[in-house]
Write a structure and sequence with these properties.
mainly alpha
Length: 170
């Protein structure tokens, strides 16, 4: 750097000659003004924006969780409906094959009087099904058999969505 003369014999450095391969020097004071607040200064706008972004992120996360929970409820509901239909089909098959338990007879009897069953959906013909009096089936059962039947009925009651069918199982 070359030193220039100043009044009162003060010398200040003059900028070095610029070469095309060198970067020009920046005026530091101008650069500091443009770069924003210095450390230690209060930046209310940045803080408010950060809080707003965090709030938005929390809200979005909450919405996603609600949506996922709703989707899970829907899947569980569809699974329960499928399990109920399969249980009813198994009961019909066991009755037709002559190896039915008491719960199967009760389920088949319900399917005959159930208005929620779709006759087009079921591939079997209910007209050739034998109907048995439910009260007559319960007579003569041992205590252990009644306990097992009670558990099986509870399973149907949990899966059943129709009010009328729930009343039947009660």
């Amino acid at each position: 750097m070359v030193m220039e003369s100043l009044p009162n014999d003060r010398k200040r450095p003059s900028p070095a000659p610029s070469h095309p391969w060198q970067r020009p020097q920046k005026d530091l004071r101008r650069h500091e003004r443009q770069s924003g607040p210095r450390l230690g200064e209060n930046n209310d706008e940045g803080l408010a924006e950060r809080k707003e972004n965090e709030s938005f992120a929390r809200e979005q996360t909450r919405r996603n969780q609600i949506q996922e929970a709703e989707q899970m409820r829907e899947w569980v509901s569809k699974e329960d409906e499928f399990v109920l239909k399969q249980s009813k089909k198994k009961a019909k098959i066991r009755v037709k094959e002559g190896r039915a338990k008491v719960i199967d007879w009760l389920a088949v009897t319900l399917s005959v009087i159930d208005s929620t069953d779709d006759p087009l959906e079921d591939d079997s013909n209910d007209n050739d099904m034998e109907i048995v009096d439910p009260a007559g089936m319960l007579e003569g059962l041992a205590h252990a058999q009644l306990r097992d039947l009670s558990k099986e009925i509870e399973n149907y009651m949990i899966l059943e969505t129709s009010r009328k069918n729930r009343d039947y199982w009660n």
